Amino acid sequence: MIHTRGLTRVFKVKKEKVEAVRGIDLDVETGQLVAFLGPNGAGKSTTLRMLTTLLKPTSGTAMVAGRDVNADPTGVRARIGYVGQRNSAGEDYLVRDELITQGRCYGLGTRQATARAEELLDLLDLRPLAKRTPATLSGGQRRRLDIALGLIHRPSLLFLDEPSTGLDPRSRAEIWEHILRLRETYGTTLFLTTHYLEEADNMAERVVIIDGGAIIADGTAAQLKNDLAGDHITVTTGTEAEAETAARIGEGTAEGTTVRLRVANAAATLPGYLRSLEDSGIKVTSAETARPTLDDVFLALTGRSITDDNIPA
Ligand SMILES: Nc1ncnc2c1ncn2[C@@H]1O[C@H](COP(=O)(O)OP(=O)(O)OP(=O)(O)O)[C@@H](O)[C@H]1O
């Protein structure tokens, strides 16, 4: 569904070159749900804009929904949907009319556009709002309308740029419910960017991490966490001196009386580690294990937290 080779975009700012995307090779198969993650300025939007034909690549190739973004951008656009960060509905039409009008813009006949609008009103739970104008909708309702608009021409591939950003937790959960329902109903391939690592972790079957314009990790969240981050053990000791010895024994780090270790399997490692500490006369006051997060993956790869310079909480 998406196949890129050496996809590159360089911006010229005055006399300087900004290499926003550096030779990306990416293959996304039909029906996949891919989360595209990276810190601010990593190159997510630039990649998305090239894949959706909004921006020309400097070099490299991209086949999207079976069409070449360079040779046939119109063909790509007819086959994909794009839900950007800004609202795509005007303010004046009623929700149902906006759907029908945009369907007509894609070349659907009135009857087809109306039938499709009715279908999407149900799929995105917009029916109770059909006679309202977009200006009167809440953030979450508006985002649902944007997704419906992105689907009006039955694209087989939908790009979503930060679909849940700026929404309260309940609306975020609702948007995800709809995204998953959409996939179940139509088998749509979904490629989305998000700042919310836990959403990518829980919802996407594949996570692609970009940093400095290059893909640095690609796999299921579980694979990435197992292969790159490992589990954590945190132990608290009675004194700082004990913590330092405990850190040495476990090849971890000590901070005050807290000792942190990174291990492949915390549940299996912890009992033996605690025994070694006891044998060395170290008093442990608490011990806990934790599974890694996608941020731990990013940290392991780059030495930085993905959220260091990111916005939302
Ligand atoms: N039109 C432009 N002119 C010059 N530089 C640009 C332009 N668009 C993007 N860049 C630069 O390219 C790099 C990648 O930007 P991009 O917007 O793709 O990142 P991003 O991962 O989407 O970040 P964010 O999460 O903040 O949206 C950044 O260094 C950015 O400053």
From TrEMBL:
GO terms for cellular component: plasma membrane. It comes from the Bacteria. Residues 2-237 form the ABC transporter domain. One of its GO terms (molecular function) is ATP binding. Its main location: membrane. It comes from Nonomuraea cypriaca. This is ATP-binding cassette domain-containing protein. It is a peripheral membrane protein. GO terms for biological process: response to antibiotic. It is found in: Cell membrane. Keywords: Antibiotic resistance, ATP-binding, Nucleotide-binding, Transport. It holds the Pfam family DrrA1-3_C. SUPFAM superfamilies: P-loop containing nucleoside triphosphate hydrolases (SSF52540). The keyword 4Fe-4S does not apply.
